[in-house]
Amino acid sequence: MGDKVRQILVVATVLAVIVVNILADTLPIGGQTTGAVANQFDVYFFPAGYAFAIWSVIYLGLVAFAVYQTLPNQRDNPRLRRVGSLVVLTGLANIAWIFCWHYELFSLSMLAILTLLGGLIAIYLGLQVGQIPVSTAEKWLAHVPFSLYLAWVTVATIANATIWLTYLDWGGWGISPTVWTVIMIMAGLAIAVGVSLPRSDTAYLLVIAWACTAIAVRQTEVTLVFAAAAVAALLAVILAVTTFRNDYRESVPRPT
Fold first, then answer.
1. pLDDT tens sequence across 84-130
2. Is 169 left (phi over 0), alpha (psi -120 to 50) or beta?
């Protein structure tokens, strides 16, 4: 794929994703909104409605990335070259998920979101987030947008899996839904720690904190879930502050 073609495809894909996601709730696609489909299921691993406002931040970041990667001085950036086709793949997976979800094709929606998650992981690794020194522009216009996107889709994948298993009437091996939710919250936090700490990725941790806080807000009447989500949110914030301080200290030149 030529560099100019790659740049155009990335821009077109980002615009298509945004348009489809807007239409998802304004038409709405399939005759129902994204939230209306989710609300058919009584699951605990699901955040309060306000949490989904983060998509506005994510899409703003993707637009910033799309513009940044079109700049002439970024045309031969090896990291942007490496992830161009993956950005297109994740865009198609995002759009596919919308249609599968709105038409209640839950098994296919699980496949779509796993494809989206896998593509985002590959982009995150391809950009070498937190692994190499990059310009301030590349950090804020490439690394941070995909840190936010990957973190939220990690949470969304767990939520999607929970709804899918509920749709399939999975018994949970005799373990109560509340306990399973606590396990998933802790697993999500463990993933966040494993991903973010080696890379000092504050943005990733802040998204996890945001998601866990929203789960706690939604589940205030389910004491065990509320407590687990609140603790996870607090730990994520503490870790985010720690990684930010460490990153700041490393970026400040030391006197010789």
1. 999 999 999 999 999 999 999 999 999 999 999 999 999 999 999 99
2. left
* Phi, then psi, of 47 in degrees rounded to 5: -80, 165
Looking at every residue in the chain, the average pLDDT score rounds to 93
The mean pLDDT of 10-36, rounded to a whole number, is 96
Tracing tokens 């804020």 back to the chain, one arrives at 140
* 161-173 confidence digits (pLDDT tens): 999 999 999 987 8
The C-alpha atoms of residue 244 and residue 238 are separated, in whole angstroms, by 10
φ, ψ (nearest 5 deg) of residue 248: -65, -45
**pLDDT given at position 244:** 87
If you write DSSP's letter for every residue of 210-222 in order, what string do you get?
HHHHHHHHHTTTS
User: Which letter does DSSP use for residue 254 in this model?
Assistant: P
Cα torsion 63, 69, 73, 79 to 10°: value is 140
Phi, psi (deg, nearest 5) at residue 103: -100, 15
Closest of 150, 12, 3 to residue 91, by C-alpha: 12
- What b/e string do you get for 19-56 counting C-beta neighbours within 10 Å, with b at 16 or more? ebbeebbeeebbebbbeebbeeeeebbbbeeebbebbe
Report d(CA 100, CA 94) in Å as an integer: 10
Tell me the C-alpha distance between 87 and 116, whole Å.
10
Question: In Å, how far from its chain's centre is CA 182?
Answer: 20
Distance CA 116, CA 129 (A): 18
**Amino acid identity at 231:** V
Please state, in angstroms and rounded to a whole number, the distance separating the CA atoms of residues 161 and 37: 14
Give the separation between CA 114 and CA 158, rounded to whole angstroms.
Answer: 10
